[in-house]
Amino acid sequence: MAVRRLGLVVHEGRPLAVQTAGTVREWADRHGIGCTDIDVWKADEDRRGGMDELHHAGDPDLVVTLGGDGTFLRGARIAAKNNAAVLGVDLGKVGFLTEVACRDVEAALEAVHHGGASFEERMTLTMRASRPLEIPAGIESLLRYGHGPALPPPAVRPESTEGDGWGVALDVTALNDVVLEKLARDHQVALGVYLSGRLLASYSADAVIVATPTGSTAYSFAAGGPILSPNTEAIVFTPVAPHMTFNRSVVAAPDESIGLRVLPHSGQAAVSIDGQLRGVLDPGDWIGVYGAPRRLRLVRLRPADFYGRVRDRFRLTDAPATALDGESDAFWRPTTPVPPDLAHLRLPPPPDAPLPRLPDSAPPPDDVRPSLDEAALHPLADDVRPSPPPDQAPLSPPPDVVRLSPPPDEAR
Predict the structure, then answer these.
(1) The pLDDT value given to residue 226
(2) Shortest CA distance to 123 belongs to which of 76, 180, 190, 53?
(3) Cα–Cα distance measured from residue 345 to residue 336, given in angstroms and rounded to the nearest whole number
């Protein structure tokens, strides 16, 4: 892709990130490409929502993040609004999302600009709520102590129609997770949890997490949830410290929504989206989290090695009982041609294949440029429905929701 405009998200607390940002700006200037810093603020300023930030940056088609996965998420919430690609430059501690080191940033930009990069698509989440989200006065300063200003509550999407029972559609794009957590230290949040409109159970817990496969290695993993391949299409529900026997995660299909209703005797619950406080719910309020039609495009300069990253980032060690067998090979793949019945599988490259390298500033030959196979985008499901009065026909779901349980009065 020929880069037309570039957005830059910098972790200002890291000198190397600030230094590398200068390199990116110089590269953009040499190529006549506009470059705007995004998601920046001063002490007396509020942060912008995703769409406002996108317009302020001039609708970039490439967002470069300089930091760790947290900085990457700051750029992702903006890039997903207009299908921009995201290139993560790694300065963090975990680095599941970032792609290149600071020393390689110019070569990486050349690769993207001249068509030498591929793009990996990741599932995202969006949501509806019983009402527009708000952050009560005083709570933000308490929960954000030691951090910068909070993002504003998400805007209501224009397709919302209040009063039809389906709530309001919120302008939310979550790459990792949506979390509903307790506000009072001594009081758990009480929630009715619905999958595809059907009650799974009522939970009393410190928090509940609704995560994408990308987010399965983040908060959900820390709470005991499973690791999902980012190539999976699924939604993971994980409770945090539930006061009940059933404390397992549930993996739902991508078109199955997860509804969270705050029960009448619960305390207030904070709504966080990719780690950012975005609203507070009162008893009786609800949110419905479901797969978004938008995908996030991640820049990839070499074949993805997700499981290698899992082993490396989590510092996985082998069982002591296997020590006598020696260290296992990093990859297991024969050198002979792949049989026809295995040709559709994702396999590592042959052991004797040359290691991929970042291209130089010259564009690569046409025959080695990877192509982007655009996945078909389809709207997924919302969740909670009220029962219509006996003399009223059930309301049709809004166009952004598709798979729900049948209306309560429908014949079985």
Answers:
(1) 97
(2) 76
(3) 15
- Angle subtended by helix axes 105-113 and 15-30, to nearest 10: 40
Question: Within its chain, how far is the Cα of 71 from the centroid?
Answer: 12
213-236 pLDDT tens trace? 999 999 999 999 999 999 999 999
Asked if residue 192 lies in contact with residue 205, where contact means CB atoms within 8 angstroms, the answer is no
- Considering only residues 374 and 127, tell me which one the structure prediction assigns the higher pLDDT: 127
Active site residue 69: yes
Output the pLDDT for position 8.
92
For residue 164, what pLDDT is reported? 77
Contacts of residue 394, Cβ cutoff 8 Å, sequence gap at least 6: 385, 388, 407, 409, 410
One-letter amino acid of 356: P
Per-residue exposure over 53-75, b if at least 16 CB sit within 10 Å of its own CB, e if not: bbebbeebbbbbbbbbbbbbbbb
How buried is 25 (Cβ within 10 angstroms: 0-12 exposed, 13-18 middle, 19+ buried)? middle
Q: What is the pTM of this model?
A: 0.81
> What is the structure's pLDDT at 361?
47
- Sign of the four-CA dihedral 23, 24, 25, 31: positive
CA triple 358-364-367, angle to 5 deg: 120
Question: Which fold, 5-113?
Answer: Rossmann fold (3.40.50)
Catalytic residue, candidates 37, 39, 46, 69: 69
Distance CA 67, CA 73 (A): 10
Residue labelled with tokens 């990457």:
72
What kind of architecture, by CATH, is found in domain 125-293? Sandwich (2.60)
The answer to whether residues 157 and 201 touch, using CB atoms and an 8 Å cutoff, is no
Q: What is the 3-state secondary structure (H, E, C) of 37-55?
A: ECCCCCCCCCCCCHHHHHH
Collapsing DSSP to helix, strand or coil, 276 comes out as strand
Count of Cβ atoms closer than 10 Å to residue 45 Cβ: 10
Torsions phi, psi of 3, nearest 5? -70, 125
Question: Fold match between 5-113 and 125-293?
Answer: no
Please report which residue ranges of 84-208 form alpha helices under DSSP H: 105-113, 139-143
In 3D, which of 61, 69, 63 has the Cα closest to residue 1? 61
